């Protein structure tokens, strides 16, 4: 019974008033606000429900069935000149076939002729050497840059670790000092209470 009494004494009227006002505010904003949320949207030009509605896709067919995959043309319907695209595709196919026929190899002699008609062997070796040299130089430069970045990262990480250790030691010393001071204050307060109780 004493606990209930002490609990009732701890209730402050300002807290009760705050909770009451918050509840009223919540009730008013939810129950009395925005009536249009649950209503049906207005219909433009009230029509009877049995009237057939206008469907604009029926008047403007984008793709008519012509064959191909899914019974439609394989060409984009927005393309204006389908014949030009087909002609270009046929020309490319003919060009590829002509290249195969002209550069095809039927025998060793034909391979030798194709090889001799191209870049001379000396130039090929020189080009290959230059390519290998430039590739090796790029690899060396990339390796040097990567190593330098790695060393800079290690230096930065080491410096950050040293700074963090210093800060942690300082904080630990400060915390230890504060704890010793609090313990001394607590001991002093305990002695004062004991002295007052004895009196």
Features:
mainly alpha, 199 residues
Question: Mind sketching the topology for me?
Answer:
Blueprint: H1 2-10, H2 13-31, H3 56-59, H4 82-103, H5 108-117, H6 121-198
What report would you give on this structure?
This protein has 199 residues and is mostly helical. The protein contains six helices and no strands. The longest helix has 78 residues, at 121-198.
Order of helices and strands: HHHHHH
The helical percent reads over 70%
Query: Helical segment tally?
Result: 6
Question: Structural class of the helix and strand makeup?
Answer: mainly alpha
Rounded to an integer in angstroms, the radius of gyration calculated over CA atoms is 45 Å
**What is the molecular shape?**
flat
By DSSP, the count of extended strands is 0
Oligomeric form of this entry?
A: single chain
- pLDDT under 50 segments (min length 5)? none
Q: Please tell me the overall pLDDT.
A: 77
Strand content: under 5%
Largest sheet: none
Q: What's the end-to-end separation, in Å? A: 33 Å
Give a summary of the structure in a few sentences.
This protein has helices at residues 2-10, 13-31, 56-59, 82-103, 108-117, 121-198. The protein is mostly helical and 199 residues long.
